[in-house]
C-alpha cells in the first residue's frame, strides 16, 4: 500500500535518477567535444615559417619553410621520431616515413630557391 511518504520517496528517486542521466549525458558530450577540439602536436624546426597548418583533426598537416639544411631537418625529425622506417627521393623531394604510437608520419623535404619546404602529415594507422 502506497502512502504519501512512499510516494514522495519514489518521486525524489525518479528526479535523482533523471538528474544523474542528464549529468552523464553532459559529461560524455563535453568529453567528445574536448577530444574533437584537441590539437595534434607536430614539431617544427626553430626557424619554421609556417604557411599552412591543419592540426585540429586527422589527418593533421603542417607546411613550412626553413633555412636549415636538408641534413639539419632530417636530424631534427630523427630526434623527434627516431630512425625513419623508409625514405625515398623522388623528383627532388625526400620523403621520410615514421610510425609513432598509432600514427603514420610522413615528412617531405624539398628545395625551394634558397630554402627548404617541409610538409609533415600525421595520419592514423588503420586497424586491421
What does this molecule look like?
With 128 residues, this protein is α+β, with helices and mostly antiparallel strands. It folds into two domains: 1-37; 49-124. Helices cover 35% and strands 36% of the residues. The chain has two helices and six strands; from the N terminus they run αββαββββ. The protein has helices at residues 4-36, 70-81; strands at 49-54, 60-66, 86-90, 93-100, 103-112, 115-124. A six-stranded antiparallel sheet has the order 1-2-6-5-4-3, with helices on one face. Strand 4 and strand 5 form a beta hairpin. The longest helix is centred in the first third of the chain and has 33 residues, at 4-36. The N and C termini lie far apart (59 Å).
**Quick check: average pLDDT?**
82
Q: Main β-sheet: number of strands, strand sense, barrel status?
A: 6 strands, antiparallel
The spatial strand order of the largest sheet comes to 1-2-6-5-4-3
Strand residue percentage: 35-45%
- End-to-end gap: 59 Å
**Uncertain spans, ≥5 residues at pLDDT below 50?**
29-35
What series of H and E elements makes up the topology?
HEEHEEEE
Report the radius of gyration as a whole number of Å.
25 Å
DSSP helical segment count: 2
* Morphology: elongated
Q: Which percent range fits the helix content?
A: 25-40%
Q: How many strand elements?
A: 6
| Structural class designation | alpha+beta
